[in-house]
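Friendly challenge for the regulars: who can give me the structure tokens for this chain first? No prize, just bragging rights.
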Amino acid sequence: MIRLTPVVRNIIIINVIIFVLQNVMPGVTNLLSLWNVRSDNFMPYQLFTYMFCHGGFFHIFFNMIVLASMGPVLESFWGQNRFIIFYLFTGIGAGVFNVAIDFFFLDSPSFGLMMGASGAIYGVLMGFGMLFPNMEVMLLIPPIPIKAKYLVWVLGLMTLLIGGGNVAHLAHLGGIIFAFILIRYWRSQGGSYF
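First reply, four minutes later:
Bragging rights claimed.
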């Protein structure tokens, strides 16, 4: 059974509230989602707010299931303050990474509108895999156990190899990279966290 910790519970509640608002007030999606920087609709605050919007039921469902499964372990290990810093850093970092790659390295925009917690969720996956590499995680589909370190590699490779569609693969990769950087930084600072 999943036991939610306070920060994880609050993040899920915020995501659900915003998802409901998106469905009853359509303008919320355009206001809070991350628009391409080449668009007149881009606003810097969207690098924060985009991660609380979702494109559909299954989008929010799977993101929140992963957060509810692995987030409490990280929050219990680090404490509330460090976990919220980690979650926001990886989520914002995923958006910044996606925008930067799109703006500086691509000739044409790779996205028009981006939303979802997936960048932060991939950060949570990376953090979980780095801190608890040999802990087994039960997959939903197919229902088999897999060690966290392998799960991170599989999902990371999938996001690199599968392109196209309405999926912000660069944001997923950004969440992984920013999680790796922050955990390495925290480890270099020493302390009782690692």
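The chain is about 65% helix and 5% strand. Residues 6-188 form a domain with the Rhomboid-like fold fold (CATH 1.20.1540.10). Your move, everyone else.
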